[in-house]
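Posting for a labmate who doesn't have an account.
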Amino acid sequence: MVPRMRSTLLALAASLFALSAAAQPTPGSSPGLGPPNTGPISPERLSADDKALADKSLAGRAPGGPGEAGTIKYLTEQLKAAGVKPGGEKGAWTQDVPLMRFEVQPNPKFSLAMGGPPKDLAQTKDVMIWTQRPGARVQAKAAPLVFVGYGVTAPERQWDDYKGADLKGKIAVILINDPDFEAKPGEPVFGRFGGQAATYYGRWIYKFEEAARHGALGAIIVHETAGAAYPWSTVVASNGDAYDIQRTDAATVHPLLQGWMQLSLAGELFRKSGLDFDALKVRARSPAFTPVPLKATFSADFAMKDTRILSHNVIGKIPGAKRPAESVMFAAHWDAFGEGPRAEGSADGVRHGAIDDGLGVAGVLELARAFAKGPRPQRTVVFALWTAEERGLLGSEWYATHPIYPLETTAANFTMDVLQTAGPSRDVVLVGAGQDSLELDFAKAAARQGRTVTPDPHPEKALFYRADHFSVAKRGVPTLLLMGMAAGPDLVIGGRAAGDAWVNDYTTRCYHQVCDDWNPLWDLRGAAQDVALLYEVGRGVANSPRWPEWTTTSEFKLIREVTNVFRGLPPSPAAAALLQAQPPGGVQTLPGGVPPAGAPAAKPPPAPAKGPAARPAPKR
Protein backbone atom coordinates (compact mmCIF):
# COMPACT_ATOMS: atom_id res chain seq x y z
CA MET A 1 0.00 0.00 0.00
CA VAL A 2 2.85 2.43 0.61
CA PRO A 3 3.68 2.91 -3.09
CA ARG A 4 0.03 3.60 -3.71
CA MET A 5 -0.15 6.08 -0.88
CA ARG A 6 2.83 7.86 -2.31
CA SER A 7 1.09 8.39 -5.64
CA THR A 8 -0.15 11.93 -6.19
CA LEU A 9 -2.74 13.57 -8.35
CA LEU A 10 -2.28 16.66 -10.50
CA ALA A 11 -5.79 17.93 -11.03
CA LEU A 12 -5.76 21.59 -11.80
CA ALA A 13 -8.30 24.43 -11.53
CA ALA A 14 -8.20 28.01 -10.29
CA SER A 15 -10.53 30.10 -8.19
CA LEU A 16 -10.43 33.19 -6.03
CA PHE A 17 -11.93 33.87 -2.67
CA ALA A 18 -11.88 37.03 -0.59
CA LEU A 19 -9.21 37.21 2.08
CA SER A 20 -10.57 38.51 5.35
CA ALA A 21 -8.53 40.33 7.95
CA ALA A 22 -9.91 39.13 11.27
CA ALA A 23 -7.20 40.55 13.52
CA GLN A 24 -6.82 44.15 14.60
CA PRO A 25 -3.65 46.17 13.92
CA THR A 26 -1.23 46.61 16.77
CA PRO A 27 -0.94 50.20 18.02
CA GLY A 28 1.34 52.29 15.86
CA SER A 29 1.78 49.59 13.23
CA SER A 30 -0.36 51.12 10.52
CA PRO A 31 1.78 52.44 7.65
CA GLY A 32 -0.27 55.58 7.62
CA LEU A 33 0.15 56.24 11.34
CA GLY A 34 3.73 55.35 12.21
CA PRO A 35 6.87 53.47 11.19
CA PRO A 36 6.19 50.28 9.24
CA ASN A 37 6.25 47.12 11.31
CA THR A 38 9.01 44.93 9.90
CA GLY A 39 9.51 42.77 12.99
CA PRO A 40 12.94 41.09 13.02
CA ILE A 41 13.51 41.80 9.31
CA SER A 42 16.02 44.59 8.62
CA PRO A 43 15.71 46.67 5.43
CA GLU A 44 19.38 47.54 5.83
CA ARG A 45 20.47 43.89 5.90
CA LEU A 46 18.24 43.15 2.90
CA SER A 47 20.07 45.89 1.04
CA ALA A 48 23.52 44.70 2.11
CA ASP A 49 22.86 41.11 1.03
CA ASP A 50 21.39 42.23 -2.26
CA LYS A 51 24.37 44.50 -2.95
CA ALA A 52 26.72 41.56 -2.45
CA LEU A 53 24.65 39.24 -4.67
CA ALA A 54 24.41 41.83 -7.46
CA ASP A 55 28.14 42.53 -7.47
CA LYS A 56 29.70 42.24 -10.92
CA SER A 57 32.26 39.77 -9.55
CA LEU A 58 29.46 37.18 -9.52
CA ALA A 59 28.93 37.74 -13.26
CA GLY A 60 25.15 37.64 -13.10
CA ARG A 61 24.95 34.33 -11.17
CA ALA A 62 24.37 32.04 -14.17
CA PRO A 63 24.02 28.34 -13.24
CA GLY A 64 27.32 26.63 -13.96
CA GLY A 65 28.83 30.01 -14.81
CA PRO A 66 31.85 31.86 -13.46
CA GLY A 67 29.86 33.40 -10.62
CA GLU A 68 28.26 30.24 -9.21
CA ALA A 69 31.11 29.31 -6.86
CA GLY A 70 31.26 32.83 -5.41
CA THR A 71 27.49 32.95 -5.03
CA ILE A 72 27.40 29.64 -3.16
CA LYS A 73 30.30 30.74 -0.97
CA TYR A 74 28.49 33.93 0.04
CA LEU A 75 25.20 32.16 0.73
CA THR A 76 26.72 29.41 2.84
CA GLU A 77 28.81 31.92 4.79
CA GLN A 78 25.71 33.95 5.62
CA LEU A 79 23.69 30.91 6.65
CA LYS A 80 26.53 29.60 8.78
CA ALA A 81 27.02 33.01 10.43
CA ALA A 82 23.29 33.11 11.21
CA GLY A 83 23.59 29.85 13.16
CA VAL A 84 21.86 27.66 10.59
CA LYS A 85 23.07 24.10 10.00
CA PRO A 86 23.87 22.57 6.61
CA GLY A 87 20.70 21.11 5.11
CA GLY A 88 21.87 19.66 1.81
CA GLU A 89 23.05 16.23 0.75
CA LYS A 90 25.13 14.16 3.18
CA GLY A 91 25.40 16.98 5.71
CA ALA A 92 26.66 19.51 3.15
CA TRP A 93 25.31 22.93 2.28
CA THR A 94 24.42 22.02 -1.30
CA GLN A 95 22.43 19.62 -3.45
CA ASP A 96 23.83 18.71 -6.88
CA VAL A 97 21.49 19.66 -9.73
CA PRO A 98 22.43 17.98 -13.03
CA LEU A 99 21.06 20.01 -15.93
CA MET A 100 20.85 19.46 -19.66
CA ARG A 101 20.85 22.13 -22.35
CA PHE A 102 19.32 21.33 -25.76
CA GLU A 103 20.20 23.45 -28.82
CA VAL A 104 18.56 23.09 -32.21
CA GLN A 105 21.37 23.37 -34.74
CA PRO A 106 21.23 25.65 -37.81
CA ASN A 107 19.09 24.86 -40.85
CA PRO A 108 16.35 22.65 -39.39
CA LYS A 109 13.95 21.22 -41.97
CA PHE A 110 10.17 21.20 -41.46
CA SER A 111 7.35 20.60 -43.89
CA LEU A 112 3.60 20.13 -43.93
CA ALA A 113 1.83 17.98 -46.54
CA MET A 114 -1.83 18.97 -46.91
CA GLY A 115 -3.06 16.99 -49.89
CA GLY A 116 -0.54 18.43 -52.32
CA PRO A 117 3.21 18.93 -52.53
CA PRO A 118 4.80 19.41 -49.09
CA LYS A 119 4.98 23.00 -47.91
CA ASP A 120 8.32 23.96 -46.41
CA LEU A 121 8.03 25.70 -43.03
CA ALA A 122 10.49 28.21 -41.63
CA GLN A 123 11.68 27.97 -38.04
CA THR A 124 10.66 31.11 -36.08
CA LYS A 125 8.45 32.36 -38.96
CA ASP A 126 5.90 29.54 -39.32
CA VAL A 127 6.77 27.21 -36.46
CA MET A 128 9.01 27.00 -33.41
CA ILE A 129 10.08 23.38 -32.84
CA TRP A 130 12.56 21.88 -30.40
CA THR A 131 13.18 18.79 -28.29
CA GLN A 132 14.06 18.05 -24.67
CA ARG A 133 15.10 14.49 -25.30
CA PRO A 134 18.81 13.61 -25.66
CA GLY A 135 20.02 12.64 -29.11
CA ALA A 136 22.09 13.92 -32.01
CA ARG A 137 19.21 14.18 -34.46
CA VAL A 138 15.41 14.38 -34.50
CA GLN A 139 13.56 12.98 -37.47
CA ALA A 140 9.87 12.52 -38.22
CA LYS A 141 8.71 11.50 -41.68
CA ALA A 142 5.13 12.16 -42.76
CA ALA A 143 3.74 11.85 -39.23
CA PRO A 144 -0.09 12.09 -39.19
CA LEU A 145 -1.58 15.08 -37.39
CA VAL A 146 -4.46 14.72 -34.94
CA PHE A 147 -6.37 17.64 -33.42
CA VAL A 148 -6.90 16.90 -29.71
CA GLY A 149 -8.68 20.09 -28.69
CA TYR A 150 -7.15 21.57 -25.56
CA GLY A 151 -5.18 18.40 -24.82
CA VAL A 152 -6.57 18.11 -21.29
CA THR A 153 -7.21 15.02 -19.17
CA ALA A 154 -9.06 16.05 -16.00
CA PRO A 155 -11.24 13.26 -14.58
CA GLU A 156 -12.16 15.34 -11.54
CA ARG A 157 -13.86 17.73 -13.97
CA GLN A 158 -15.24 14.94 -16.13
CA TRP A 159 -13.00 16.04 -18.97
CA ASP A 160 -10.93 13.96 -21.39
CA ASP A 161 -9.89 15.41 -24.73
CA TYR A 162 -7.99 12.27 -25.76
CA LYS A 163 -10.78 9.67 -25.38
CA GLY A 164 -8.28 6.83 -25.70
CA ALA A 165 -7.01 7.93 -29.13
CA ASP A 166 -3.99 6.05 -30.46
CA LEU A 167 -1.28 8.69 -30.95
CA LYS A 168 1.68 6.38 -31.49
CA GLY A 169 3.74 7.82 -34.34
CA LYS A 170 1.39 10.81 -34.58
CA ILE A 171 1.60 14.50 -33.70
CA ALA A 172 -1.02 16.13 -31.51
CA VAL A 173 -2.23 19.60 -32.54
CA ILE A 174 -3.39 21.44 -29.43
CA LEU A 175 -5.15 24.67 -28.46
CA ILE A 176 -3.55 26.93 -25.87
CA ASN A 177 -5.11 27.79 -22.48
CA ASP A 178 -8.02 26.08 -20.71
CA PRO A 179 -11.14 24.66 -22.34
CA ASP A 180 -13.28 27.40 -20.78
CA PHE A 181 -10.95 30.33 -21.58
CA GLU A 182 -13.25 31.62 -24.33
CA ALA A 183 -16.44 29.92 -23.14
CA LYS A 184 -19.65 31.88 -22.81
CA PRO A 185 -22.46 31.35 -20.30
CA GLY A 186 -24.57 28.40 -21.33
CA GLU A 187 -21.70 26.43 -22.87
CA PRO A 188 -21.07 23.03 -21.23
CA VAL A 189 -17.57 23.99 -20.10
CA PHE A 190 -18.38 27.45 -18.72
CA GLY A 191 -16.91 27.75 -15.21
CA ARG A 192 -15.56 24.19 -15.20
CA PHE A 193 -11.92 25.28 -15.19
CA GLY A 194 -10.59 28.74 -14.34
CA GLY A 195 -12.28 30.90 -16.95
CA GLN A 196 -10.00 33.90 -17.38
CA ALA A 197 -7.95 32.74 -14.37
CA ALA A 198 -5.54 30.29 -15.98
CA THR A 199 -4.95 26.83 -14.51
CA TYR A 200 -2.03 24.50 -15.10
CA TYR A 201 -4.13 22.65 -17.67
CA GLY A 202 -3.80 25.76 -19.82
CA ARG A 203 -0.01 25.93 -19.64
CA TRP A 204 2.08 24.80 -22.59
CA ILE A 205 4.32 22.67 -20.36
CA TYR A 206 1.34 20.61 -19.19
CA LYS A 207 0.09 20.12 -22.76
CA PHE A 208 3.45 18.75 -23.93
CA GLU A 209 3.68 16.42 -20.93
CA GLU A 210 0.12 15.16 -21.37
CA ALA A 211 0.74 14.44 -25.05
CA ALA A 212 3.82 12.42 -24.05
CA ARG A 213 1.75 10.48 -21.51
CA HIS A 214 -0.63 9.56 -24.32
CA GLY A 215 2.21 8.26 -26.47
CA ALA A 216 2.33 11.06 -29.05
CA LEU A 217 5.42 11.36 -31.23
CA GLY A 218 5.08 15.13 -31.07
CA ALA A 219 2.94 17.99 -29.85
CA ILE A 220 2.39 21.34 -31.56
CA ILE A 221 0.36 24.12 -29.94
CA VAL A 222 -1.52 26.68 -32.01
CA HIS A 223 -0.35 30.11 -30.90
CA GLU A 224 -2.93 32.75 -30.08
CA THR A 225 -1.72 35.85 -28.28
CA ALA A 226 -4.72 36.19 -25.97
CA GLY A 227 -4.66 32.56 -24.87
CA ALA A 228 -0.89 32.40 -24.48
CA ALA A 229 -0.72 35.83 -22.77
CA TYR A 230 2.33 36.70 -24.88
CA PRO A 231 3.07 37.38 -28.56
CA TRP A 232 4.79 35.15 -31.11
CA SER A 233 8.03 37.06 -30.49
CA THR A 234 8.18 35.52 -27.00
CA VAL A 235 7.69 32.03 -28.40
CA VAL A 236 10.64 32.37 -30.78
CA ALA A 237 12.94 34.21 -28.36
CA SER A 238 14.61 30.96 -27.26
CA ASN A 239 15.66 30.20 -30.87
CA GLY A 240 15.32 26.49 -30.18
CA ASP A 241 17.31 26.41 -26.94
CA ALA A 242 15.74 24.55 -24.02
CA TYR A 243 16.78 23.20 -20.62
CA ASP A 244 15.75 20.38 -18.37
CA ILE A 245 16.99 18.39 -15.42
CA GLN A 246 18.86 15.26 -16.51
CA ARG A 247 16.43 12.37 -16.75
CA THR A 248 16.56 8.69 -17.55
CA ASP A 249 12.84 8.77 -18.37
CA ALA A 250 12.65 11.83 -20.65
CA ALA A 251 10.29 10.06 -23.07
CA THR A 252 7.63 9.87 -20.35
CA VAL A 253 7.71 13.65 -19.91
CA HIS A 254 8.61 15.07 -23.33
CA PRO A 255 7.42 14.10 -26.82
CA LEU A 256 10.21 13.61 -29.34
CA LEU A 257 9.40 17.00 -30.86
CA GLN A 258 7.34 19.81 -29.40
CA GLY A 259 6.61 23.40 -30.26
CA TRP A 260 4.21 25.95 -31.68
CA MET A 261 2.67 26.94 -35.00
CA GLN A 262 1.36 30.30 -36.11
CA LEU A 263 -2.40 30.81 -36.02
CA SER A 264 -2.46 31.59 -39.74
CA LEU A 265 -0.75 28.29 -40.53
CA ALA A 266 -3.27 26.44 -38.35
CA GLY A 267 -6.11 28.07 -40.28
CA GLU A 268 -4.63 26.87 -43.56
CA LEU A 269 -4.03 23.38 -42.15
CA PHE A 270 -7.64 22.96 -41.00
CA ARG A 271 -9.07 24.51 -44.16
CA LYS A 272 -7.15 22.12 -46.41
CA SER A 273 -8.36 19.26 -44.21
CA GLY A 274 -11.91 20.33 -44.99
CA LEU A 275 -12.45 21.69 -41.49
CA ASP A 276 -13.37 25.03 -39.96
CA PHE A 277 -10.82 25.96 -37.29
CA ASP A 278 -13.12 28.32 -35.42
CA ALA A 279 -15.98 25.83 -35.43
CA LEU A 280 -13.69 23.09 -34.11
CA LYS A 281 -12.54 25.40 -31.33
CA VAL A 282 -16.14 25.71 -30.21
CA ARG A 283 -16.63 21.93 -30.45
CA ALA A 284 -13.50 21.46 -28.32
CA ARG A 285 -15.25 23.33 -25.51
CA SER A 286 -17.59 20.38 -24.99
CA PRO A 287 -16.83 17.32 -22.84
CA ALA A 288 -18.20 15.23 -25.74
CA PHE A 289 -15.31 16.34 -27.99
CA THR A 290 -13.30 13.54 -29.61
CA PRO A 291 -9.94 13.85 -31.40
CA VAL A 292 -10.14 14.74 -35.09
CA PRO A 293 -7.60 13.31 -37.57
CA LEU A 294 -6.36 15.96 -39.99
CA LYS A 295 -5.74 15.29 -43.66
CA ALA A 296 -2.12 16.29 -43.34
CA THR A 297 1.29 15.03 -42.25
CA PHE A 298 4.27 16.75 -40.66
CA SER A 299 7.93 16.03 -41.35
CA ALA A 300 10.95 17.22 -39.41
CA ASP A 301 14.70 16.72 -39.63
CA PHE A 302 17.10 18.67 -37.43
CA ALA A 303 20.37 18.19 -35.60
CA MET A 304 20.72 18.76 -31.87
CA LYS A 305 23.52 19.63 -29.49
CA ASP A 306 23.20 18.41 -25.90
CA THR A 307 25.32 19.89 -23.12
CA ARG A 308 25.48 18.66 -19.52
CA ILE A 309 25.76 21.29 -16.79
CA LEU A 310 26.23 20.76 -13.07
CA SER A 311 24.77 23.38 -10.75
CA HIS A 312 23.72 23.39 -7.11
CA ASN A 313 20.89 24.25 -4.76
CA VAL A 314 21.95 25.76 -1.44
CA ILE A 315 20.03 24.45 1.59
CA GLY A 316 20.23 25.21 5.30
CA LYS A 317 18.11 24.05 8.21
CA ILE A 318 17.21 24.54 11.83
CA PRO A 319 16.28 21.06 13.15
CA GLY A 320 12.93 20.86 14.86
CA ALA A 321 12.89 20.49 18.64
CA LYS A 322 9.78 18.28 18.90
CA ARG A 323 8.87 17.11 15.38
CA PRO A 324 12.09 17.18 13.36
CA ALA A 325 10.68 14.86 10.68
CA GLU A 326 8.15 17.56 9.74
CA SER A 327 9.35 20.67 7.94
CA VAL A 328 8.49 24.21 6.87
CA MET A 329 10.36 25.68 3.91
CA PHE A 330 11.32 29.23 2.90
CA ALA A 331 12.73 29.59 -0.61
CA ALA A 332 13.94 31.86 -3.41
CA HIS A 333 16.17 31.36 -6.45
CA TRP A 334 19.79 32.50 -6.48
CA ASP A 335 20.36 32.31 -10.23
CA ALA A 336 20.05 35.19 -12.67
CA PHE A 337 20.84 35.65 -16.37
CA GLY A 338 24.61 35.95 -16.33
CA GLU A 339 26.32 38.21 -18.80
CA GLY A 340 24.63 39.71 -21.84
CA PRO A 341 25.11 42.53 -24.33
CA ARG A 342 26.06 45.89 -22.90
CA ALA A 343 23.34 48.48 -22.74
CA GLU A 344 23.54 52.23 -23.00
CA GLY A 345 24.56 53.65 -19.64
CA SER A 346 25.77 50.27 -18.37
CA ALA A 347 29.36 49.88 -17.21
CA ASP A 348 29.30 46.15 -18.04
CA GLY A 349 27.14 43.49 -19.64
CA VAL A 350 26.21 41.80 -16.37
CA ARG A 351 22.54 41.10 -15.78
CA HIS A 352 22.84 41.43 -12.02
CA GLY A 353 19.44 40.05 -10.99
CA ALA A 354 19.27 42.37 -8.00
CA ILE A 355 15.48 42.41 -7.78
CA ASP A 356 14.90 39.11 -9.58
CA ASP A 357 15.71 37.39 -7.35
CA GLY A 358 18.55 38.82 -5.27
CA LEU A 359 16.04 40.46 -2.95
CA GLY A 360 14.14 37.20 -2.53
CA VAL A 361 17.38 35.48 -1.56
CA ALA A 362 18.14 38.31 0.86
CA GLY A 363 14.70 37.72 2.35
CA VAL A 364 15.48 34.04 2.94
CA LEU A 365 18.76 34.97 4.62
CA GLU A 366 16.94 37.40 6.90
CA LEU A 367 14.40 34.73 7.77
CA ALA A 368 17.23 32.36 8.64
CA ARG A 369 18.72 34.96 10.99
CA ALA A 370 15.34 35.63 12.60
CA PHE A 371 14.60 31.94 13.24
CA ALA A 372 18.12 31.25 14.48
CA LYS A 373 17.87 34.05 17.07
CA GLY A 374 14.51 32.91 18.40
CA PRO A 375 13.43 29.81 20.27
CA ARG A 376 14.10 26.58 18.42
CA PRO A 377 10.98 25.75 16.36
CA GLN A 378 9.07 22.54 16.91
CA ARG A 379 9.28 21.56 13.25
CA THR A 380 12.43 21.65 11.15
CA VAL A 381 12.72 24.92 9.23
CA VAL A 382 14.41 24.66 5.82
CA PHE A 383 15.98 27.56 3.92
CA ALA A 384 16.26 26.66 0.23
CA LEU A 385 18.01 28.74 -2.41
CA TRP A 386 17.37 27.24 -5.83
CA THR A 387 19.41 27.27 -8.99
CA ALA A 388 18.12 27.44 -12.60
CA GLU A 389 14.72 29.02 -11.94
CA GLU A 390 15.25 31.20 -14.99
CA ARG A 391 15.76 28.06 -17.09
CA GLY A 392 12.39 26.57 -16.18
CA LEU A 393 12.12 26.12 -12.37
CA LEU A 394 14.73 23.39 -12.67
CA GLY A 395 16.53 23.62 -9.32
CA SER A 396 13.26 23.32 -7.43
CA GLU A 397 12.05 20.62 -9.84
CA TRP A 398 15.17 18.58 -9.16
CA TYR A 399 14.58 18.96 -5.42
CA ALA A 400 10.91 18.00 -5.79
CA THR A 401 11.90 14.79 -7.59
CA HIS A 402 14.82 14.19 -5.19
CA PRO A 403 13.52 15.68 -1.89
CA ILE A 404 15.84 15.81 1.09
CA TYR A 405 12.87 16.48 3.38
CA PRO A 406 9.83 14.37 2.39
CA LEU A 407 7.18 16.43 0.63
CA GLU A 408 4.43 14.44 2.34
CA THR A 409 5.56 15.88 5.69
CA THR A 410 6.53 19.33 4.45
CA ALA A 411 3.83 21.44 6.07
CA ALA A 412 4.24 24.55 3.92
CA ASN A 413 6.43 26.32 1.38
CA PHE A 414 6.88 30.11 1.37
CA THR A 415 8.47 31.51 -1.80
CA MET A 416 9.70 34.99 -2.68
CA ASP A 417 10.33 35.83 -6.33
CA VAL A 418 10.83 39.62 -6.67
CA LEU A 419 10.24 42.02 -3.79
CA GLN A 420 9.26 45.62 -4.40
CA THR A 421 11.68 48.49 -3.70
CA ALA A 422 9.25 51.42 -3.54
CA GLY A 423 8.64 51.66 0.21
CA PRO A 424 5.90 50.85 2.76
CA SER A 425 2.49 49.85 1.46
CA ARG A 426 -1.01 49.57 2.81
CA ASP A 427 -1.47 46.12 1.31
CA VAL A 428 0.40 43.10 -0.05
CA VAL A 429 -0.47 41.46 -3.36
CA LEU A 430 -0.89 37.68 -3.14
CA VAL A 431 -0.42 35.58 -6.27
CA GLY A 432 -2.65 32.51 -6.38
CA ALA A 433 -5.24 33.77 -3.92
CA GLY A 434 -7.89 31.25 -2.98
CA GLN A 435 -5.64 28.21 -2.86
CA ASP A 436 -5.05 27.21 0.77
CA SER A 437 -5.58 27.89 4.45
CA LEU A 438 -2.23 29.67 4.77
CA GLU A 439 -3.89 32.70 3.21
CA LEU A 440 -6.14 33.17 6.22
CA ASP A 441 -3.09 33.24 8.50
CA PHE A 442 -1.46 35.62 6.03
CA ALA A 443 -4.43 38.00 6.12
CA LYS A 444 -4.44 38.00 9.94
CA ALA A 445 -0.69 38.73 10.04
CA ALA A 446 -1.16 41.57 7.55
CA ALA A 447 -3.96 43.01 9.69
CA ARG A 448 -1.62 43.06 12.69
CA GLN A 449 0.66 45.23 10.55
CA GLY A 450 -2.30 47.47 9.74
CA ARG A 451 -2.39 46.18 6.16
CA THR A 452 -4.69 44.17 3.90
CA VAL A 453 -4.19 41.40 1.35
CA THR A 454 -5.04 42.08 -2.30
CA PRO A 455 -5.54 39.03 -4.55
CA ASP A 456 -3.56 39.06 -7.80
CA PRO A 457 -5.67 41.20 -10.18
CA HIS A 458 -4.27 39.42 -13.26
CA PRO A 459 -4.78 35.67 -12.71
CA GLU A 460 -4.99 35.18 -16.48
CA LYS A 461 -1.18 35.64 -16.61
CA ALA A 462 -0.80 32.33 -14.72
CA LEU A 463 1.98 33.68 -12.50
CA PHE A 464 1.08 31.12 -9.86
CA TYR A 465 2.41 28.42 -12.19
CA ARG A 466 5.62 30.26 -13.09
CA ALA A 467 7.64 30.36 -9.85
CA ASP A 468 9.64 27.79 -7.89
CA HIS A 469 6.94 27.05 -5.32
CA PHE A 470 4.99 25.31 -8.07
CA SER A 471 7.45 22.40 -8.16
CA VAL A 472 6.30 21.37 -4.69
CA ALA A 473 2.75 22.73 -4.93
CA LYS A 474 1.91 20.39 -7.79
CA ARG A 475 3.04 17.56 -5.55
CA GLY A 476 0.70 18.65 -2.77
CA VAL A 477 2.65 21.02 -0.50
CA PRO A 478 0.57 24.10 0.52
CA THR A 479 2.30 27.33 -0.51
CA LEU A 480 2.32 31.10 -0.33
CA LEU A 481 3.95 33.11 -3.12
CA LEU A 482 5.13 36.71 -2.96
CA MET A 483 5.86 38.13 -6.41
CA GLY A 484 6.27 41.88 -6.31
CA MET A 485 6.00 42.30 -10.08
CA ALA A 486 2.50 40.75 -10.22
CA ALA A 487 0.73 44.06 -9.55
CA GLY A 488 1.43 47.37 -7.90
CA PRO A 489 0.94 47.64 -4.14
CA ASP A 490 -1.03 50.47 -2.55
CA LEU A 491 2.00 52.50 -1.50
CA VAL A 492 1.83 54.82 1.50
CA ILE A 493 3.36 57.51 -0.68
CA GLY A 494 1.54 57.67 -4.00
CA GLY A 495 -1.05 54.93 -3.55
CA ARG A 496 -1.89 52.25 -6.11
CA ALA A 497 -0.92 54.50 -9.01
CA ALA A 498 2.62 54.78 -7.68
CA GLY A 499 2.76 51.03 -7.09
CA ASP A 500 1.61 50.30 -10.63
CA ALA A 501 4.16 52.79 -11.94
CA TRP A 502 6.93 50.92 -10.09
CA VAL A 503 5.84 47.57 -11.56
CA ASN A 504 5.54 49.02 -15.05
CA ASP A 505 8.95 50.67 -14.90
CA TYR A 506 10.67 47.55 -13.62
CA THR A 507 9.01 45.09 -16.00
CA THR A 508 9.41 47.20 -19.13
CA ARG A 509 12.87 48.59 -18.47
CA CYS A 510 14.92 46.34 -16.18
CA TYR A 511 13.32 42.88 -15.92
CA HIS A 512 16.04 40.40 -16.97
CA GLN A 513 18.18 43.32 -18.18
CA VAL A 514 21.50 44.83 -17.10
CA CYS A 515 19.74 47.64 -15.23
CA ASP A 516 18.34 45.17 -12.68
CA ASP A 517 21.17 46.26 -10.39
CA TRP A 518 21.41 47.20 -6.73
CA ASN A 519 20.48 50.80 -5.91
CA PRO A 520 21.32 52.51 -2.60
CA LEU A 521 18.26 54.77 -3.03
CA TRP A 522 15.78 51.94 -2.75
CA ASP A 523 13.29 52.07 0.11
CA LEU A 524 13.16 48.44 1.26
CA ARG A 525 10.87 48.95 4.23
CA GLY A 526 7.95 47.62 2.20
CA ALA A 527 9.94 44.56 1.17
CA ALA A 528 10.87 44.02 4.83
CA GLN A 529 7.18 44.26 5.78
CA ASP A 530 6.37 41.49 3.30
CA VAL A 531 9.19 39.23 4.47
CA ALA A 532 8.05 39.79 8.05
CA LEU A 533 4.60 38.54 7.08
CA LEU A 534 6.09 35.25 5.90
CA TYR A 535 8.06 35.04 9.14
CA GLU A 536 4.91 35.42 11.24
CA VAL A 537 2.90 32.89 9.24
CA GLY A 538 5.81 30.45 8.92
CA ARG A 539 6.66 30.66 12.60
CA GLY A 540 3.07 29.79 13.45
CA VAL A 541 3.17 26.71 11.23
CA ALA A 542 6.62 25.69 12.51
CA ASN A 543 5.39 25.74 16.10
CA SER A 544 2.07 24.03 15.54
CA PRO A 545 1.01 20.39 15.02
CA ARG A 546 -1.60 21.43 12.45
CA TRP A 547 -1.27 20.78 8.75
CA PRO A 548 -2.26 23.63 6.38
CA GLU A 549 -4.84 22.49 3.84
CA TRP A 550 -5.75 23.32 0.28
CA THR A 551 -9.21 24.81 -0.15
CA THR A 552 -12.05 22.72 -1.54
CA THR A 553 -11.76 24.63 -4.84
CA SER A 554 -8.00 24.14 -5.19
CA GLU A 555 -6.60 21.91 -7.90
CA PHE A 556 -4.07 20.54 -5.40
CA LYS A 557 -6.40 19.37 -2.63
CA LEU A 558 -6.75 15.79 -3.82
CA ILE A 559 -3.02 15.48 -4.45
CA ARG A 560 -2.34 16.24 -0.80
CA GLU A 561 -5.10 14.00 0.51
CA VAL A 562 -3.63 10.98 -1.27
CA THR A 563 -0.63 11.22 1.08
CA ASN A 564 -2.65 11.86 4.27
CA VAL A 565 -1.40 8.61 5.84
CA PHE A 566 2.10 10.06 6.14
CA ARG A 567 0.70 12.83 8.32
CA GLY A 568 -1.31 10.50 10.52
CA LEU A 569 -4.56 11.31 8.74
CA PRO A 570 -6.99 9.06 6.88
CA PRO A 571 -7.34 9.63 3.13
CA SER A 572 -10.47 11.45 2.06
CA PRO A 573 -13.16 9.34 0.33
CA ALA A 574 -12.07 10.73 -3.05
CA ALA A 575 -8.41 9.98 -2.34
CA ALA A 576 -9.27 6.50 -1.06
CA ALA A 577 -11.16 5.78 -4.28
CA LEU A 578 -8.18 6.86 -6.34
CA LEU A 579 -5.81 4.73 -4.29
CA GLN A 580 -8.09 1.73 -4.62
CA ALA A 581 -8.10 2.17 -8.39
CA GLN A 582 -4.32 1.88 -8.57
CA PRO A 583 -3.09 -1.27 -10.34
CA PRO A 584 -0.83 -3.79 -8.57
CA GLY A 585 2.54 -2.23 -7.82
CA GLY A 586 1.16 1.29 -7.60
CA VAL A 587 1.91 2.26 -11.22
CA GLN A 588 1.19 5.92 -11.84
CA THR A 589 -2.23 6.17 -13.46
CA LEU A 590 -3.63 9.20 -11.68
CA PRO A 591 -4.47 12.20 -13.89
CA GLY A 592 -1.89 14.90 -14.28
CA GLY A 593 1.04 12.51 -14.37
CA VAL A 594 3.03 14.14 -11.57
CA PRO A 595 5.69 11.70 -10.33
CA PRO A 596 4.76 10.16 -6.96
CA ALA A 597 5.95 12.47 -4.20
CA GLY A 598 7.76 9.78 -2.28
CA ALA A 599 8.74 7.42 -5.07
CA PRO A 600 12.45 6.73 -5.61
CA ALA A 601 13.74 8.93 -8.40
CA ALA A 602 15.77 7.50 -11.24
CA LYS A 603 19.40 8.54 -11.16
CA PRO A 604 20.57 10.60 -14.13
CA PRO A 605 23.75 9.96 -16.06
CA PRO A 606 26.77 11.44 -14.25
CA ALA A 607 27.29 15.14 -14.85
CA PRO A 608 30.69 16.74 -15.30
CA ALA A 609 32.27 18.47 -12.35
CA LYS A 610 32.13 21.72 -14.27
CA GLY A 611 30.23 22.80 -17.32
CA PRO A 612 29.37 25.86 -19.37
CA ALA A 613 26.98 28.38 -17.96
CA ALA A 614 23.33 27.85 -18.75
CA ARG A 615 22.07 30.53 -21.08
CA PRO A 616 18.69 32.14 -20.44
CA ALA A 617 15.40 30.61 -21.49
CA PRO A 618 12.52 33.11 -21.63
CA LYS A 619 9.67 32.66 -19.17
CA ARG A 620 6.49 31.66 -20.95
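Reply:
Got it, the C-alpha coordinates are right above this. The two ends are 39 Å apart (CA to CA).
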